[in-house]
Amino acid sequence: MSDPVADQDGERQSASVSAGVEGSGRLKGPEAPPMRLPPEVARWRSIGISAGLVAVVVYPILVLVSLPRIPQVLMGVSFGPALAIASIALWHVLKVHRPTPSAQLAAVCNALAGALVTAMIIVQLAINYSTAPAVSEELDALLRDRIWDIVLGLDVSFDVFIGLATLLFAANMIRDPRFGRIIGWVGVFVALVPLLGANIFYFPDPPYTHGFPHVGIFTGVWYLGVVLLMVRDSRRERRRGGSAAVSAKKG
């Protein structure tokens, strides 16, 4: 004969476990995989991966490779929009685990950063490829230096906005099972030290003119890591979906 009190305790424990699983949308415990993304968010993740790869590939090419005019302009106008689109997609992925205003603000900041960096690149290319007639060598050199100060100001403005976005994105990633503490805390460091700290400390000069490593290296590597984690998450979901389909057929 069963014990009524024990039966009631067992039912309460089962109900508690079920409520915990259903309420959170995912299994409890450190080994539990993150919940499967809804189809619409999965499409946003694919967009984010594609746009993110464009951004992290185009930026080093612009900085390190000497290109003809048309390819350089095409790459110059693609980096900012790719950054903005990838950031909006990343916000959609992050809000599945924990919707926060800070993640949405991060997407807004990086969208603004994309606009600023596009303006900076276009102004820089316009200076380099200018066909305006020369007045005098001294005056042209003076004007070029002063206009270049505008480019540097736009560069710092871009770093401020992408620094704030990186900080907010990274803070949201620390507790997100798709990303985790390592990428989260590394992102916090990248935002506070190279992006915001170095640019403010060395202003108005670029940090690299004082021997500081190029800020873009830290930022690009971190965002590449974020894209790769999204790729890993997508592949894991496909494998789990394939395993579930095989199990269903066997059943």
Secondary-structure topology with pairs:
Elements: H1 4-24, H2 39-64, H3 69-97, H4 101-128, H5 137-173, H6 181-202, H7 215-250
Helix pairs in contact: 2-3, 2-7, 3-4, 4-5, 5-6, 6-7
Structural summary, described in words:
- The chain has one domain.
- The chain is an all-alpha fold.
- It is built from seven helices and no strands.
SS-based class: mainly alpha
Major sheet size, sense and barrel closure = none
Q: What is the percentage of strand-forming residues? A: under 5%
**What distance lies between the first and last C-alpha atoms, to the nearest angstrom?**
35 Å
**Alpha plus pi helix count:** 7
Please bin the fraction of helical residues.
over 70%
- Beta-strand segment tally: 0
| Poorly predicted regions | 1-31
What average pLDDT do the residues reach? 83
